Amino acid sequence: EFRRVVFRSLVLVQDSAEGAIAAGCTVAPLAKRAAFFGGYQSLLMSLRPKAQVFKPTGANTNCCWFAEGFESVPNGIAFGGQVGHFGLFVSDTMDSGHSRMSATFNNAQLLGEGLAGTFNVGVVETWSVDALALQEFNDAVARAARKAAAEAAGGGSVLDARAQDRKFMQIAHSGDRFSASDGVR
């Protein structure tokens, strides 16, 4: 079964030393809190040197983390793992982070070296999608496609596109029958 998922937040991280790229995405908007959020539609990915996608395993619900200004928890953005031991973490200063194996996504270490998996951040990109605006855009595109198909079929209405068929049906019914679709648009 194909399900269309609209990710609300995407975070791309590049390791400054190796050039490796990892990403995390979630259907939940990023909001500061000292607790995990997100859901089972979140993903953790390695994009370079090897493309891999890690889906939540169901072992826990520790999909996303976004904390800033807290004193007792790590401040930054993360995906998977446990507090202080994340699948992918970038500090709130955006200069360092770590990547470790996590039960949340059953991921390999995505960035960094050694058991600590620490790295220096080269680039961080964060993308946010307005789900309502995206739905409105998709609806407008679908309406335009339907209109173009109708016009390509010979008119702006399905009634116009089938004018020859309607004429044939009138002839077949003695030519004197009234068509219920006449004048309808």
* Oligomer classification: single chain
Average pLDDT, rounded to a whole number, is 82
The portion of residues assigned to helices is 10-25%
Poorly predicted regions are none
- Number of contiguous helices: 3
Termini Cα gap: 36 Å
Strand order of the largest sheet: 3-6-7-8-9-10-1-2-4-5
* Rg: 27 Å
Percentage of residues in DSSP E strands: 25-35%
Class by SSE composition: alpha+beta
Total number of strands: 10
Sheet having the most strands: 10 strands, antiparallel
Shape: elongated
Order of helices and strands: EEEEEEEEEEHHH
Describe, in plain words, how this protein is organized in 3D.
The two termini are 36 Å apart. The model has no long low-confidence stretch (mean pLDDT 82). This protein has 185 residues and is of the alpha+beta class. 19% of the residues lie in helices and 32% in strands. Strand 8 and strand 9 form a beta hairpin. It is elongated, with a radius of gyration of 27 Å. The chain has a ten-stranded antiparallel sheet, with no helix packed on it.
